[in-house]
Amino acid sequence: MIKRKWDMFCESVNMSVSNIMGSKMRSLLTTLGIVIGVAAIIALMTVVQGAIDTMNEQFDAMGLGTLRVSVTGTAIKHGLSDEELDQILACEHVAGIAPSASATVTASSDSAWSDAILVSGNNDEYFRHNPDLLARGRAINVLDVEQSLRVCLVDGDAARTLFYGEDPLGQTLYLSGIEYTVVGIIDEEENASLFSQILVGGASDGTVYVPYTSAKKLLGTSSVSSLEVYVTDPDDTDAAIEEMEAVLDALFNYKENTYTIINMESMTDAMNLMTSMMMSLLVGIASIALVVGGIGIMNMMLVTVTERTVEIGLRKALGAEPGQIQIQFLIEAIVLSLLGGVLGVIVGLLVSLGICLNTDITFSLNTFAIGLGVSFSAAVGIIFGWAPARKASNLNPIDALRSM
Amino acid sequence: MNTFFSMRGIVKQYQMGEEVSTILKGIDLDIKEGEFLSILGPSGSGKSTLMNIIGCLDTPTSGEYILHGRVIRDLDQKQLARIRSREIGFIFQQFQLLPRLDALKNVELPLIYAGVPPKERTRRAEEMLVRVGLKDRMHHHQNQLSGGQQQRVAIARALATNPTLLLADEPTGALDQATGEQVMTLFRELNAEGRTIVMITHDLKIARHATRIVNILDGELSEGVSAFD
Ligand SMILES: Nc1ncnc2c1ncn2[C@@H]1O[C@H](COP(=O)(O)OP(=O)(O)OP(=O)(O)O)[C@@H](O)[C@H]1O
Ligand SMILES: [Mg+2]
Fold first, then answer.
1. What is the pLDDT of residues A199-229, one digit of tens each?
2. Residues whose beta carbon lies within 6 Å of some atom of ligand 1
3. Cβ contact, residue pair A11, B112, below 8 Å
4. Domain residues for A253?
């Protein structure tokens, strides 16, 4: 019995393929709507997914396993002291911390002067986690931090402002009148992390990096209000946050809104949610093309049924059951729209490959999108092929035979 | 002998706008198993209409048709399809071959719906085509066959499922005398094998090959050939 059904199925597929091949041009035009709809879905999903992946990669490189703590504090306690920082460092899932202190100061060299130089106090840990920051010379090391040495690194803007046309390395500059030696140059491209750019804004004549202990002295503060925290393992991020919250809550007497811990990962999650919502919307719009394509299929199937009335009558006269006729025409509609679906997948992949090659987006085969496109087109075939198939199966054999 | 089918008061009417035209005016007909019946009548007398009712392709406006003990009026489309598939072989007046398929595939067609597996299907279709003398025309399409050859493909197709009842609507209409006689020889063979045959013709000579002849004129049936003489 199953074998019989299978034979019937193969027969139906054979017949529909030969019918479709019999009118290639018409079949192709009919499936155009499906081709466009599926191609749009595939291209959209592949490109948007690629964009999300690329963005995630960049975000991960920037912040996976890194937490940013910024402290607003209370009226009597503005920041964290060194001992309190050690408490955070002592947390089980915290591998390292990079406190920072920054302010805009007046700076001068032997030849130039500026009152809008940003001083950024950092430690060795910070440079270890941002190795691309250093272009030439050396980074800030433990010794610099422990002994509050007056060494500094300059970025491209600061170098241009203070040492125009000269190599700053080894030169001397004065921050608020205090003498510092330039030991390293910051890479122009890297120019600090996106995050610190957001924090300090871009309206300065350049940035000078100094040991953070030295910065505290320079700025006359004894506490730190922002720091990066490096987690032992990205998977332990949540645990680390909990531990730090316990420490910080205790330090600020459980007052609210005294500090914030920003997890880069949760920012990425929020962004992913947004982009995938947008993608659903776009795919929804593309689906309209599929519905239009479905109507095209329905039209062609109705024409086919009318054209082949005699054939249907004959098949029935030779013993075909109404159900078998219905299945045959339904399969033909599905084969037709699947053909459109497969063509659509190919076109969609080519289009998205073209887009990806011309942008920074990395191309990857989105199997989910392909599956979705193919099953959508099959569903369109079933939905829009149903009525014509039903019509064919209900034809009276003798009326059909006489209609020639 | 057992009755193969019986008809009582079969009426067929067509509504043509305001007018109702009655094509069959109360036909009573009984056929026994193994009979070879010729229905003789002029063009337009309702022969094909009656044949379509016998073949379960059409339903009468009124009257009772009982085939092998089953009241046809009570059966649904699926059951009728089963009867057409398993018990009846139909040779149509206009051959009705599918132009997209070759002779062999045309003969295989009823075997598909009878659920015969592909290999067996081809074997049986070839056997039938050999039997009607088309051994070297198996892969010809309709437009590559003469009228007589198309007729023989149609006969092979009707015989493929090995039906107990063979219905032939003008099986020799497109054939010359000699080929017509050949077909009649084949029909007599088939009848001798035990098949019940109902054949439509307007040619008395052809009709005489049958074991029984009925006449139809203006939708009314009469036994014997008298009315046509
Ligand atoms: N669907 C229909 N609607 C109206 N009238 C019909 C229909 N089908 C057949 N007829 C009429 O029924 C009559 C009998 O037709 P039928 O085909 O049975 O004739 P026939 O005896 O087979 O003739 P022939 O020898 O020419 O084949 C004809 O007058 C025809 O016009
Ligand atoms: Mg006729």
1. 555 567 888 999 999 998 888 888 888 888 8
2. A 402; B 14, 16, 23, 41, 43-49, 93, 202
3. yes
4. 73-257
